[in-house]
Amino acid sequence: MIGRIAGVILHRAMDHVLIDVRGVGYIVHVSPRTASNLPPVGEACALYTELVVREDLLQLFGFPSLIEKEWHLLLTSVQGIGAKAALAILGTLGPEGVSRALALGDWAAIKAAPGVGPKLAQRVVMELKDKAPSVMAMGGALTIDTGPADDVIEAPEKPAAKPAKRPAPAPKTNFTAEALSALTNLGYAPAEAASAVARAADDPAATDTAKLIRTALRLLAPKD
């Protein structure tokens, strides 16, 4: 199983990329979203991959992060959703958009992907709405690759002093995963918790895990 490809880009297109790995060229199918974010020809890149094996064909599909690969695997578990259809859904919505659409039962968002009709989109939502929270909960634990690091570069003996920088905010995916875990630990059903977290994430004030949890809890509170 080929789980990751790291090398130099020889050719780029909107639906695939050719990567040279020590003299061997691998064609990796990607979504237009992923393709647009890849470096230019001649530069290094790294993609997590899934190898799809058929009787007469071997295809590699590439993803910039492990969480996106997990969403692709989940989508292809639905009858009628092949590897390319799943890639189209991810390319249209992105991993966060897919998680939100499944959590909220928004099949119209799934239908926006090329080649996915309304019946198939409804099937995706119906079959995955209870499975999606498990992938959403992975968001904070899975790493996101920033590229190959084959060469070790030694630091200078006396590095120049740099001004202190504020720490970068944690990715919102981490907030979502942590909030989902907290709500399920409180006894809420995974699908119910996922829906509340997805809705709460739209609140501009939900800028960290604690605020996201509080907002979601308000949405889950019984209405008078």
Automatic annotation (TrEMBL):
Q: Which Gene3D superfamilies match?
A: 5' to 3' exonuclease, C-terminal subdomain, DNA helicase RuvA subunit, C-terminal domain, Nucleic acid-binding proteins
Molecular function GO labels: ATP binding; four-way junction DNA binding; four-way junction helicase activity
Q: Which InterPro entries match?
A: DNA_helicase_Holl-junc_RuvA_I, Hlx-hairpin-Hlx_DNA-bd_motif, NA-bd_OB-fold, RuvA, RuvA_2-like, RuvA_C, RuvA_C_sf
Q: Where is the Helix-hairpin-helix DNA-binding motif class domain?
A: 73-92, 108-127
Q: Where is this region: Domain III?
A: 173-224
TM ranges are: none
**What are the GO cellular component annotations?**
cytoplasm; Holliday junction helicase complex; Holliday junction resolvase complex
Q: Where is it chiefly localized? A: cytoplasm
Q: Which CDD domains match?
A: UBA_RuvA_C
* Domain I as annotated region, ranges: 1-64
**What residue spans carry the region label Flexible linker?**
160-172
Keyword annotations for this protein, in alphabetical order, are: ATP-binding, Cytoplasm, DNA damage, DNA recombination, DNA repair, DNA-binding, Helicase, Hydrolase, Nucleotide-binding
Top-level taxon in the UniProt lineage: Bacteria
Q: Which SUPFAM superfamilies match?
A: DNA helicase RuvA subunit, C-terminal domain, Nucleic acid-binding proteins, RuvA domain 2-like
- Annotated compartments: Cytoplasm
Q: Which GO terms describe its biological process?
A: DNA recombination; DNA repair
Subunit comment: Homotetramer. Forms an RuvA(8)-RuvB(12)-Holliday junction (HJ) complex. HJ DNA is sandwiched between 2 RuvA tetramers; dsDNA enters through RuvA and exits via RuvB. An RuvB hexamer assembles on each DNA strand where it exits the tetramer. Each RuvB hexamer is contacted by two RuvA subunits (via domain III) on 2 adjacent RuvB subunits; this complex drives branch migration. In the full resolvosome a probable DNA-RuvA(4)-RuvB(12)-RuvC(2) complex forms which resolves the HJ.
This chain's function reads:
The RuvA-RuvB-RuvC complex processes Holliday junction (HJ) DNA during genetic recombination and DNA repair, while the RuvA-RuvB complex plays an important role in the rescue of blocked DNA replication forks via replication fork reversal (RFR). RuvA specifically binds to HJ cruciform DNA, conferring on it an open structure. The RuvB hexamer acts as an ATP-dependent pump, pulling dsDNA into and through the RuvAB complex. HJ branch migration allows RuvC to scan DNA until it finds its consensus sequence, where it cleaves and resolves the cruciform DNA.
Q: What is known of its domains?
A: Has three domains with a flexible linker between the domains II and III and assumes an 'L' shape. Domain III is highly mobile and contacts RuvB.
Query: What NCBIfam families does its record include?
Result: ruvA (TIGR00084)
Family the entry assigns: Belongs to the RuvA family.
What's the protein name?
A: Holliday junction branch migration complex subunit RuvA
Query: Which species does the entry assign this protein to?
Result: Rhodobacter maris
